[in-house]
Amino acid sequence: MFQIDVLAALPTELILGILCMALASPWFSTWFVFVAVTCFITTLMWSFVYLLSIREALKIPINWVLSELIGTGIQALLYLIAFIVLFAATAGGYGWHGYGANVAAAVFGIFNTAAYAASAFILFKEHKSSVGVAA
C-alpha cells in the first residue's frame, strides 16, 4: 500500500517539469533540457503505475518503494546539477535572447529539486517503516 503523500507530490513535479521544459532553451544548456524531459517522463510513468494499479497487478518480487526511492533520489540529484549548470551557462548572457526565460527555468529547477527531494524523503520514511514492519 502506498501513502497518499507520494501521490500528492506527483502533480507538483509534473507541473514544475512542464515549466522547466517550456522555459529552458537548449542553446544555453542541453543538459538541463535533457534532465527536465527525462525526469518528466519518468515521473509520468510512475504516476501511471500508481493510477492504473500496475504495482498490484504485477506479481513480480520488486520492492516498489525502494525502486521509486532510488529513482526519485537520482532525479533530485540530476536536477540539482542541472539548475547549477543552467545558472552557470546564463551567467555571461545578460541581454541575450531568452536570458530571462532560462533564468526562470533554473529557478523552477530549484523548486523541482526541492519537490523531488521532498518526495525522496517521504519515500525514505515509508521504506524505513515498511522495513521495520517486515523485520
UniProtKB/TrEMBL annotation:
The keyword Transmembrane applies. It comes from the Eukaryota. The chain crosses the membrane at residues 7-25, 31-52, 64-91, 103-124. The keyword Transmembrane helix applies. It is a multi-pass membrane protein. Its main location: membrane. PROSITE patterns: MARVEL. It holds the Pfam family MARVEL. Keywords: Membrane, Transmembrane, Transmembrane helix. It is found in: Membrane. This is MARVEL domain-containing protein. It comes from Loxostege sticticalis (Beet webworm moth).
